[in-house]
Records
---
Amino acid sequence: MDTAMEATTGGRGAGSRQPPGLKRRLRRLEEAVKTILANIGEDPGRPGLAQTPERVARMYLELFSGLGSDPAEQLTVLEEEGAGDLVIVRDIPLYSMCEHHLIPFIGRAHVAYLPDQGRITGLSKIARLVEGYARRPQVQERLTRQLADAIEARLAPRGVAVVVEAEHLCMVMRGVRAHGSRVVTVAVRGLFASDPAEREQVIAQLRS
Ligand SMILES: Nc1nc2c(ncn2[C@@H]2O[C@H](COP(=O)(O)OP(=O)(O)OP(=O)(O)O)[C@@H](O)[C@H]2O)c(=O)[nH]1
Ligand SMILES: [Zn+2]
């Protein structure tokens, strides 16, 4: 985690220089990509691949930029007197990386929460939360749970429900080659966990 922290905390201020750790990590990633290319039977020296290790190194830091920060901190708490009705944000795009194979799983997240005492969050913040947890090596169940836990911890709502629907390229491009299969995961907290009728209703709304 220490090295991940370097990448995400470095270079934030205007004109600030990259921390030395970041350059070293990029160089090591480039070396690793060259090693992969050589060992799959490619020639890392051929012109078409000349920039590839550097490009892939930068891409990996982007794809895994959710490491080393706490996405829950992005959930600002707004006090809106009287806000107590269900809030649903559906179809949030999701691009994450399966931690078993390091290839993408792609889908949508749907989030609902029932505010308590007028505590709500900015709507964009929920999409930011999804991005923060998605940009790291993941499994879908943990991602789903982390989204529900973050909203519960920050907003202390009466209930939270999260549904994630995704296609795992590790199940499609390789292995079992289950084309068209979709994985659906659900996490519920508060009222949606304790009351089966409420749970059923909110999940139906999220999946409709
Ligand atoms: N529960 C869960 N499993 C996942 C997720 N992403 C990938 N997997 C599974 O992780 C498992 C890894 O199993 P292994 O047997 O170690 O790896 P493998 O030989 O490549 O497995 P196959 O994919 O069956 O060929 C596979 O069953 C994947 O389908 C995820 O988000 N959640
Ligand atoms: Zn996988």
Note: Residues 98, 100, 139-141, 168, 170-171, 175-176 surround guanosine-5'-triphosphate (ligand 1) (CB under 6 Å).
---
Amino acid sequence: MTRQELFTNIKKKRSFLCVGLDTDITKIPSHLHKEQDPIFEFNKQIIDATADVTVAYKPNIAFYEALGPKGWESLQKTLDYIPNDIFTIADAKRGDIGNTSALYARAFFEAMSFDSITVAPYMGRDSVKPFLQFDGKWVILLGLTSNEGFADFQNEPMADGKKLFEKVITTSQQWGSADNMMYVVGATRGEMFKEVRALAPEHFLLVPGIGAQGGDLEATCKYGMNSQCGLLVNSARGIIYAGNGVDFAEKAKLAATDLQQQMDEMLEKYL
Ligand SMILES: O=c1ccn([C@@H]2O[C@H](COP(=O)(O)O)[C@@H](O)[C@H]2O)c(=O)[nH]1
């Protein structure tokens, strides 16, 4: 999917919502356990309930690989079920020496057909570039993460006075462009979106941290939105576990629609 197609979907749905499919077998409603593949059945119902207000789905791979081969099967079925016009993100946070990264890329872009993958940048250029060799696919580099520990390294000044996340964002622009690279910036980072936008005005940002982590949608949009919206805002637990009974999908739909309506207002205000 191209940047323009992503923006067209955002305008059409008045939404830049990314639903996180962080499906935990211990948290899904008990009535689903009688199904042959409870994880897929849960995801299927979540997708049916939220697809009309959603522009991206982001399964976090940990939730699937923790279940072994059966988890990978549920992931593949989920990916196949997501409508073609919705952007897919493998939140896998991969990255290794070049030949290994090349195989991670094949796993998620060829064996599975995700549109994008999250990549940890800290092994540098040869660990990231293999993911950028696939036409129409995207790398989403960790920039400024949503968790408390972001301050340990990402926000630390380096010898040249630049913070590590600034260095990641500027240097990585030599490897890819706004048409095949995005950055992860947490919704908990507030005004720091200004610093990110000064360095990457055109790139899309994947923004986790809304909902369960208490991130701020208004600040994210005020400081982070660009002329093509430039934001994919993720919520997982806040949507998929909005309910825990037989009506879990309806509750998820309400939570997703509530967020979409706030996004509609943000688009009106800041785009
Ligand atoms: O900085 C980051 C990077 C990734 N994540 C991931 O996003 C979701 C957030 O889930 P919620 O339930 O909406 O909190 C999850 O998959 C994280 O691994 C992040 O939170 N922060």
Note: The first helix runs from residue 3 to 13.
